[in-house]
Model the fold of this input.
Amino acid sequence: MYYSKKEDELERLEKIISTDFYANAISTLAIILTIAIFIRQNYINNKDRKKETKKNWYMSVIIQPNLNNIDKFYNQIHQRINNNINTLKGITDGRFIQRQKARANRTLRDLRNDFLDNFVTIVQSYDKSLATKINKTINDLQDLCSQQIDNYSNTDISQIKKKIYENRSSLISLLYEGIKEEEEKWYKRFFKWRRQ
Done:
């Protein structure tokens, strides 16, 4: 009788322990899962905060202070090319045309180089590929201006202005590409996360 009572007590104790074991295991897993979610969310928040800080720096250091410089550069280009074409059209002695073309191209090249030195080097500190794209856009502008100077007798001043400011629009849109994010597909993020 004493033995069977002890066995009943042991069985009751085993039931309590086994149910408590499962409850403890489930609560332990829940705590581990909660901690893992917290750590992951904290990692994502820190990463987003860094991206946002970098975007704010880009906007406040590169784009906003240089918008006036960009406008000034394009206005100078437009004024110089107009003046040079009008000067070339006014030359009656053919001997001076080549010299004036070379002088005009040199002046435009100097303007471009000053702009590249003062602006593109700053962009390069942020993103080298973006700086390369901007450099290409400015070189396209230089090519456009050189072509217009070489063909000064057939140029239309209003078309030149339009093309110069189209180039400016391309440059501005490139600048704003620097803050756009490409959203990665979920499966790319998953495999990137698995590799880490």
